[in-house]
Amino acid sequence: MPEGDSAYRAAKNLHRSLTGRSVNRFELRVPKLATASLLGEEIRGVDARGKHVLLRIGEYTVQSHFGMDGSWRIVPPASAARAAGRRPRRGPTIAWPAAHRIRAIIGTDAAIALGIDLAKLDMWPTADEEEHLGWLGPDLLAETPDLAEAIRRIQQQPDREITAALLDQRNLAGLGNEYVTEMCFLLGVLPSRTVRECGDIAEWVRLGRRLLLANRDRVDRTFTGDLRRPTYVFGRAGQPCRRCGTIILEGKHASGSKQPGATVRNAAWCPNCQC
Q: Which ranges carry the Formamidopyrimidine-DNA glycosylase catalytic domain (predicted)?
């Protein structure tokens, strides 16, 4: 499940492969951007902000959000010929995903970036970036995030469920459902508890940052320190707790979203270790 660490790794890989090169292929496969073109522009850099990946090309920013299944993939230029059914002249190739899954193609002479199953894709002048993303809370994977501001925002609504407060990207950016579910276990708190009932919020924010930092350079995420058994409760409903052996329960908890159909997320907890 893509979260802030996934966006960080994607941005790092895109930055390494594309920065400083000129765009020779540009397709954004969403209706409002179907005719947009940045051909010939230089890719100035790629960054992540929370769960958003930002490609800065010329004077514009291409913004993407993974949602539940999105990703960026780097493929060699020779792969384009193979994807079109032609024999590549030279160079290595990598199979492309099905065409209907590709929402963005940004190509250079050295590499092609494919945006696959992206939940959101947009473009705007880089000068207007704060107008579009200024609503985000402090990014927990920033070099020096304003943790005090994140704590302040969460504490403004003491009767809100802790899961909703942590998942709300307006409070702090980067945490997703897997992180929040595991944080509740690590701090021994039921996901239904409110901010007021969860003790020192600074401890929650610091834990979220530590976990993201620990996972940001890993392809496979872990909360236990063991890649073979990566989670304590997330995705483990009906199995014994790794600490006490009690069967993990499942249900729903608040998501922090007001969008219809998205107000709750899947929850898992140990009824013995969490109270």
A: 2-92
Beta-bridge partners for 28: 104
Which one of 3, 161, 178, 182 is the catalytic residue? 3
Within the chain, residue ranges assigned H as helices are 4-18, 78-83, 129-133, 147-155, 162-167, 177-186, 201-215
Rounded to 5°, angle at Cα 1 from 13 and 237: 150
Q: Which three-class secondary structure state does DSSP give residue 15?
A: helix
On whether the pTM is more than 0.85, the answer is yes
Q: Which domain holds residue 248?
A: 147-269
68 and 188, same domain (yes or no):
no
**Tokens in use for 119?**
């939940």
| 121 within domain boundaries | yes
pLDDT tens sequence across 92-135: 557 788 999 999 999 999 999 999 999 999 999 999 999 999 99
Buried b or exposed e, range 85-102, using 16+ CB within 10 angstroms: eeebeeeebeebeeeebb
Give the 3-state secondary structure of residue 33: helix
Instruction: Give the three-state DSSP class for 91.
Output: coil
Q: Which one from 2, 145, 191, 230 is the annotated catalytic residue?
A: 2
Q: Which of 49, 51, 153, 221 is catalytic?
A: 51
Rg (CA), the chain: 20
Burial class (CB in 10 A: 0-12, 13-18, 19+), 191: buried
With beta carbons less than 8 A apart as the criterion, state whether 63 and 136 touch: no
Residue 154 φ/ψ region, left for φ over 0, alpha for ψ in the -120 to 50 degree band, beta for the rest: alpha
Active site residue 3: yes
User: 2 or 26: which carries more pLDDT confidence?
Assistant: 26
**2 is an active site residue:** yes
